[in-house]
Amino acid sequence: MAVHDTESGGNGFEPKILVFACNWCSYAGADLAGVSRLQMPANCRVIRVMCSARVRPEFVITALSKGLDGVLVLGCHPGDCHYSEGNYFTRRRGLLLQKLLQYVGIEPERFQVRWISASEGAKFAETIGQVTDQIKALGPNRSQNGMQPAEPGDS
Amino acid sequence: MPKTRVGVFICHCGNNIGGVVRVPDVVEYARTLPNVVHAEDNLYTCSEEGLSSIKDKVEQQGLNRVVVASCTPRTHEPLFRGACEEAGLNRYLFEFVNIREHCSWVHMHDPVMATEKAKELVRMGVAKACHLEPQEDFESDVFPAALVIGGGVAGMTAALCLANQGIQVYLVEREQELGGLIRGVQTLFPTEQNTEELLHPLIEQVKNHPQITVYAGTVVEKTSGFIGDFDVAVRANGEASNLKVGTIIVATGAEELKPGGLYRYSELPNVVTQLEFEERFKAGADLPRSVAIINCVGARIPQRTYCGRFCCTTAIKNAIWLKEQDPETSVYVLHRDVMAYGVAIEEFYRRAMELGVRFVRYDVESPPQILGDARAEAIKVQHQLMGKEVVLPADLVVLTTPLVARDDNEELSRMLKVPLGSEGFFLEAHLKLRPIEFSTDGVYVCGAARYPCNIPESVSQAYAAAAKASIPIREGMVRVEAITAVCDERRCSACGNCVEVCPFGAVELQEGRFGKAAHVNPAQCKGCGCCVASCPSGAMQQRGFNDRQLLSMIGALAEETTSGGA
């Protein structure tokens, strides 16, 4: 069990969200948010990777199946990747993974890919706020007992 | 294999972390984590005392992994890695946990959640640390040329400093002429030297220097690469060129605020900014009989909170100039505070008063008002010292506005992957410790691109930036972090995905001991990890970011914080 409060969507549910941030843009953006003292919810935990393209889909699946409430992958804006084209892989892989996760019954908000540059401290803080709110509204991730394919007819 | 012994050092950063996160609780908690044999807090882990403590504990406690929870690896990782190395520990057996930028500074009003978060971040860091492996740095060549962006005083000075060391410099200036903002300025404070006397020889030296190639009327379109090996695409009149450089200096300066909407600027012909005042009299305009200068126009207000730093001095300089042209000219300086700092400028201020320049303090709540219909005729202002309203003559009104960041800073910051501050100026790696560097290696900043600064400051920053930018070039090589990909040939099925995705052509399929397998050329690998994530058999791994390390962090995060210091 990973959540602090297991009552779904109830008051006091504090989701735990894993964030992968690329070293060059998004991690620097997160640092800038800190230097600028932009306040944000304390639900996210950042793992630094050199490029968002390092994030293997199994990391996301592992995180969600272990009961984390959401995974956010942050990279440089398309066209600005420090490694020229890493974030294009992130984008394609993200779309596929999104479909797979929905197939096994995970709400799309629980796995998101966003672009944040080194100068976008404010966007980092906003994104963390938005994603935290969305996942709070969903309630705890219940998939840790095994991801189930969605029933036909489920959205 | 020796048993894993992790030491955790948690920094208060004075009050920066300790004022929000309950550091002693985090230390207590760290002691309960697997493989942790030592945990302590430091007032400043980066201080001499903190660093010696790391070294002492590595030796005394036989630590073979060090975790520091403090600020950001983007500024402080080399320092702590260095401390590990001095204690005889491989520098890659160190893990950084960010509990300042990512925790205490962004959760200032929630110490409970911030403390919980810090504990989890430490738990994740310790989990990764247990799986770290010793690595050796690689060396990479540095291309022996530098790019300076901006041909103002800062850029030209930096270019000359580099070129005088024998380094090839490309100086890119957007305008057709070198000189930057002060081209329009008549005289410079506090020496009252004619601007041409300073600018002309500087421009000539730059133009005639055999090691400097000037690209005027040119903009930087694209940059890519790393310290030692940057590719820069520039464009002039539709013609593109590609430059290869080892280091880059940003010296793009700033521009004067044009205060639209304030003090009927651009509505009345005789209300001008300081720069327009300079240009007007440089072109030989007739002298006015009375001048009112209004300071702090568009500065130190809620929308633009900063002080322009030298605009008071500019106002004093131009007031003195007017009095020296004709002592009968009435000159009033309306100000909020006079920032005449240091030895020379305070003296300059005194001289202005002796020459009969009148300084009138106004209140930001009741700013001066310009009287007159088609042109400014007089100024009405609440005189703070006299406590009454006065009307001052004003044939000419000069608005002292601050320098503001250039609009295209945003574009350049994205290209170079360096940050801007909230006011749009370039943001250095560390205000006090690394004031002219960015945290992106090989990129430096000087002059007003960073914040409004005067000529002496621009020049000394340019010296500093040039000195920094020349170090990698003169050494001829940089140490490249051992974060490259490496293939376990026994697991590789030679599918070639990694070859396909590598942006640098660093991976090749080669016949080896275990048949055909992927092989990474470490000199070409830049450590993005694209190939690692695309490997279906888990053969490809990235040093310092391998699957085991990252999965252990995810696993640690998913655990609950159960014991210690709660």
Please characterize this protein's 3D structure.
The complex is a heterodimer of chains A (155) and B (566). Chain A has helices spanning 26-35, 57-65, 86-103, 121-138, and strands spanning 17-22, 44-49, 70-75, 111-115. Chain A is α/β, with parallel strands linked by helices. In chain A, strands 2-1-3-4 form a 4-stranded parallel beta sheet, with helices on both faces. The longest helix of chain A is centred in the middle third of the chain and has 18 residues, at 86-103. The relative contact order of chain A is 0.24. In chain B, the strands form 10 sheets. Chain B has a 5-stranded parallel beta sheet with strand order 10-7-6-14-25. In chain B, helix 6 packs across helix 7. Helix content of chain B is 31%, strand content 25%. Chain B is built from 15 helices and 30 strands. The longest helix of chain B is centred in the last third of the chain and has 21 residues, at 455-475. Chain B is of the alpha/beta class and 566 residues long. Chains A and B meet through helix 1, strand 2, helix 2 and helix 3 of A and helix 4, helix 5, helix 11, helix 14 and helix 15 of B.
Which key terms come to mind for this protein?
heterodimer; A: 155 residues; alpha/beta; four-stranded parallel sheet; 4 helices; 4 strands; globular; disordered N terminus; B: 566 residues; five-stranded parallel sheet; 15 helices; 25% strand
Strand residue content of chain B: 15-25%
Tally of extended strands of chain B? 30
On the 0-100 scale, what is the average pLDDT of chain A?
A: 87
Task: Characterize the main sheet of chain B.
Answer: 5 strands, parallel
How would you briefly describe this protein structure?
The complex is a heterodimer of chains A (155) and B (566). Chain A is an alpha/beta fold. Chain A has helices spanning 26-35, 57-65, 86-103, 121-138; strands at residues 17-22, 44-49, 70-75, 111-115.
Question: How do the helices and strands line up, and which of them pair or pack?
Answer:
The complex is a heterodimer of chains A (155) and B (566).
Chain A: E1 17-22, H1 26-35, E2 44-49, H2 57-65, E3 70-75, H3 86-103, E4 111-115, H4 121-138
Parallel strand pairs in A: 1-2, 1-3, 3-4
Helix pairs in contact in A: 1-4
Chain B: E1 6-11, H1 23-30, E2 36-42, H2 48-61, E3 65-70, H3 73-86, E4 94-98, H4 100-104, H5 111-130, E5 138-141, E6 145-149, H6 153-164, E7 168-172, E8 187-188, E9 193-194, H7 195-208, E10 212-215, E11 218-226, E12 229-236, E13 239-245, E14 247-250, E15 255-256, E16 271-273, H8 274-282, E17 290-294, H9 311-325, E18 330-335, H10 342-354, E19 358-361, E20 369-371, E21 378-383, E22 388-393, E23 396-399, E24 403-404, H11 409-416, E25 443-445, H12 455-475, E26 477-480, E27 485-487, H13 497-501, E28 507-512, E29 515-520, H14 530-534, E30 540-542, H15 547-558
Parallel strand pairs in B: 1-2, 1-3, 3-4, 6-7, 6-14, 7-10, 14-25, 16-23, 17-18, 17-23, 18-19
Antiparallel strand pairs in B: 5-26, 8-9, 11-12, 12-13, 15-24, 20-21, 21-22, 27-30, 28-29
